[in-house]
Amino acid sequence: MIITHPGSAHFDEVTAISLVLAVHENTAFKIERRLPDQAELDDPETWVIDTGRRYEPERHNFDHHQDRDLSASFVLLARHLVLEETLAVMPWWRFKDDVDRIGPARSARIHNGGDDLVNRNQMEAWLLDEFAADPGRCAPQLRSFGAHLIRESRKLKEQIDFWKTRRRLVIAGVLAVIGETRESAGLEEFRRLDDHPPDIVISLDRWGEGWRLFRFEGAPVDFFRISAEPEIEFAHNSGFMAKTRDRLSLPELIALVGKAVIVPEHNVK
């Protein structure tokens, strides 16, 4: 049995329930939207989520409204399921936690997330309405959603951990990281979470035999500047990315990338 609050449905409890369903994939749960009674709060066989005014993981009670210092219920649930460290790499994790606890407007200001219009998600609104109308009917979709979150966050964390261990270089004064992988997923999240984020990423071209050169927004690098170099197969005209024809050696790469770094005028003699 899973019990959550009646009234409007929210991302918080729906995501928490999705995680329970995904982790217990072979268990059939009855989901009810109502207030729990005392016996249900004391019964560890009953999961009480986002209601009940108790945070007692050992009894499967996961409410946070009684304590403003507690995270949202989906975070508490992930912590209990030993999934928080993995799921927290998702870029929306802390934002959604804050939205539930302090509201969308204040959260948007803290996370530079734009206004309420930007943050509206019609797919999310539809799912919440469906859950509010008939939670049992939504159980298969929620289980699938929870499994998707766990699967994708594990993949993302694996990529972030990969980039954390790659070699770092300083090229013409700009920090770069190089990794022999064709997978580019997780780069933005890696940079966001890193204490000393690089401005350039050098990885294997996904389709060709050479290297992929990539710079993050705001970095003093324009790869279109090297588009005419014989080693370059392609350079995007906006300057954020280029590809080499062949797998150049490290010294050749450093020399080539260095030509794309924009030197401030006051440093030019």
Structure summary, number of beta strands: 11
First-last Cα distance:
73 Å
What's the number of helices? 11
**Element pattern in H and E:** EHEHEEEHHHHHHHEEHEEEEH
Helix content: 40-55%
Number of domains: 2
Q: Look at the helices and sheets and give the structural class.
A: alpha/beta
Query: What is the strand content?
Result: 15-25%
How confident overall, as mean pLDDT?
A: 93
How many strands, which pairing sense, and closed or not: the largest β-sheet? 6 strands, mixed
Strand line-up in the sheet with most strands? 6-7-8-9-11-10
Low-confidence stretches: none
Rg from Cα: 24 Å
| 3D shape | elongated
Textual characterization of the structure:
This protein has 269 residues and is an alpha/beta fold. The protein has 2 domains: 2-157, no CATH class; 166-267, Diaminopimelate Epimerase, Chain A, domain 1 (Roll), CATH 3.10.310. 41% of the residues lie in helices and 15% in strands. The protein is built from 11 helices and 11 strands. It has helices at 11-23, 38-42, 73-80, 84-87, 93-102, 104-111, 116-119, 122-133, 135-164, 187-193, 250-258; strands at 2-4, 31-33, 47-49, 55-56, 61-62, 167-171, 174-178, 200-204, 211-215, 232-235, 241-244. A 6-stranded mixed sheet has the order 6-7-8-9-11-10, with helices on one face. β7, α10 and β8 form a beta-alpha-beta unit. α1 packs parallel to α3, α1 packs across α9 and α8 crosses α9 (135-164). The longest helix has 30 residues, at 135-164. The chain is elongated and about 75 Å long. The termini are far apart.
